[in-house]
């Protein structure tokens, strides 16, 4: 494994303490990119994991709200953002990447693992597999039981998107109604063309592998946990959320009046729920 560093920084909000540093490591010839928002010398680490169609930068607002006492590290998970596409999108593959990242960072202390949607599943799989690396969990509207009904993927609409286009405008037009959400994450390539922050087919492949029963992993760790459930969630039914909180010791639940995309629809409420939980640790 080799490492590289990129001096690129991203613009932060007015509440930011610093600009994040983008860096990367190489895993078997594949780049894994991540944002490190820094903090005070004794800042506690929080690993923030995005879901499908997203990237590490989606946690910029949360990092600003948490302040310098928390060092938010937000990878672009395999196949997303600035990270390379991967040969597979299994839970094992995602978690392998996270373990390699934490080994590379050598933080000297366990992290709070926070994840939204598919990233939340990766977070609790990491905690179950390597409890020594995770001191607490924040599950943001991620399921534990997602039956495969045989119906088309909920994300199948992305198969109509081109992966790249000659201009940014052309690519945005092809993305239809979700163009405003994806627009800030588009990448310009060295030849001047533009690409999506995810590959459509990879997204479907990854989403299919979310289907299944994940109860064993959710119950496979005993660190403190917060479950943030969206009242209007398209992904996590209320009954399942209640069972998740009831069956896992040390788990509290907060409900926010949003749909599945919690941090976009209620960034203040999201940050407050996380901040309150972190203060209780």
User: Unreliable segments (pLDDT under 50, ≥5 consecutive)?
Assistant: 1-17
CATH superfamily of the largest domain: Alpha/Beta hydrolase fold, catalytic domain
Q: How does the overall form come out from the CA principal axes?
A: globular
The portion of residues assigned to helices is 25-40%
Secondary structure class reads alpha/beta
- Please give the count of helices: 10
Strand content: 15-25%
The spatial strand order of the largest sheet comes to: 1-2-3-5-4-6-7-13-14
Distance between the termini: 34 Å
Oligomer: single chain
**CATH class category name of the largest domain:** Alpha Beta
- Could you tell me the CATH topology label of the largest domain: Rossmann fold
Give the number of domains.
2
Describe the structure.
By secondary structure, the protein is of the alpha/beta class. The chain has two domains: 2-144 and 214-280, Rossmann fold; 151-199, no CATH class. Helix content is 31%, strand content 25%. It has ten helices and 14 strands. The strands form three sheets. Strands 1-2-3-5-4-6-7-13-14 form a nine-stranded mixed β-sheet, with helices on both faces. The chain has a three-stranded antiparallel β-sheet with strand order 9-11-10. Strands 8-12 form a two-stranded antiparallel sheet. A hairpin with a 2-residue loop joins strand 2 (21-27) and strand 3. Helix 1 packs across helix 10 and helix 2 (91-105) packs across helix 3 (118-129). The longest helix is centred in the middle third of the chain and has 15 residues, at 91-105. The chain is globular. It starts with a strand and ends with a helix. 40% of the residues are buried.
